[in-house]
Design a protein that fits this description.
With 302 residues, the chain is an alpha/beta fold. It has helices at 3-18, 22-25, 27-47, 64-70, 85-92, 135-145, 160-164, 166-182, 190-193, 197-209, 219-226, 245-252, 274-287; strands at 54-58, 77-82, 103-107, 120-126, 146-158, 256-264, 294-301.
Length: 302
């Protein structure tokens, strides 16, 4: 079996299991990403008629972006795709979305989109690119299905420039650990929120039952395959992973123009780190403005 196919299977099984408590695990990130898309939709629908817009979201997860969209009371054609059937089921069963007739769903591979060319006006990939084994294939497929002048959003991806600036990343991770000790999330046990042992055990069970492995994979290997492009997916930082803006310009974004780059210092409210956190963020934005932990891109098809 090709490695990329095996990685996709692990991703599917992992997210099928995690779907029931994904929002709980990622509650802080969801709040922050919701703010990003509210701002985007406010601007986007001033320039486009909502009912005529065709949107494809690749890697929908549990439906963060559709939930934001419903707050505007628009009804564009919106297709949610994901490798995980359980994730899409979570969207279908979400109280805010279950009666929205403009939403459609399909289990689909992000690197082999089963749609006609030039079908969508907007393609959204929020916090999912780092799961795709072949990111370049996704960019090519998104370009194919976008109409001329269509928009591609890449939301919240790990910034390689941040991780390779080791002094900055070390300071940030230290302050983040302090914050976690004092934040309200500290009251949630590791077993409930931060420990993926049950999920990894479930993935191993499925792989063994399907005869895809002969012995259980180490949990670190599973997590490394799930977040295949994430520098901090394992016990040690892998500085070769993540995405660099320049790399995206040169390798992935042929046929696109970059309209906007946004850098994010997301990780929640710095209750514990306090003034040190705020000073760090201010210093980093002035001295290393492109070295935030994550970034988002808005690209336009040429």
């Amino acid at each position: 079996m090709e490695k990329s196919i095996f990685i996709k299977k692990i991703n599917r099984y992992f997210h099928d299991i995690e779907a029931n408590y994904f929002d709980f695990r990622h509650s802080v990130r969801i709040r922050e990403e919701s703010h990003l898309y509210r701002g985007f939709f406010q601007h986007f629908f001033r320039e486009n008629q909502p009912d005529n817009v065709r949107i494809l979201e690749v890697g929908t997860g549990t439906g963060l972006v559709p939930r934001v969209l419903t707050s505007f009371h628009y009804s564009p054609q919106y297709l949610c795709i994901d490798l995980s059937f359980s994730m899409l089921n979570a969207v279908r069963n979400c109280p805010d979305l279950c009666n929205k007739g403009f939403l459609r769903y399909s289990v689909c591979d992000s690197e082999q989109l089963s749609f006609k060319s030039e079908r969508f006006d907007l393609v959204i990939c929020n916090a999912a690119l780092h799961h795709f084994p072949n990111a370049e294939s996704f960019f090519e497929e998104a370009h194919r299905v976008l109409t001329p002048g269509g928009i591609l959003i890449i939301g919240h991806e790990p910034n390689k420039r941040f991780w390779t600036n080791r002094a900055v990343s070390f300071a940030y991770r230290t302050l983040h650990k302090i914050n976690k000790l004092f934040s309200r999330d500290a009251q949630i046990s590791k077993t409930e929120k931060g420990d993926y042992s049950k999920v990894c055990n479930g993935v191993n069970e499925i792989l063994l039952n399907k005869g895809l492995i002969t012995e259980p994979l180490p949990h670190e290997t599973i997590l490394g395959h799930v977040d295949i492009h994430s520098p901090n997916s394992g016990s040690k930082i892998d500085y070769s992973k993540g995405f660099a803006i320049q790399e995206i310009k040169e390798r992935f974004s042929k046929g696109y123009s970059i309209e906007q780059i946004r850098y994010h210092y997301s990780q929640g409210s710095p209750n514990g780190a306090g003034i040190l956190w705020r000073l760090f963020r201010l210093y980093n934005r002035i001295v290393f403005p492109a070295s935030a932990p994550s970034f988002s891109l808005i690209l336009r098809k040429g």
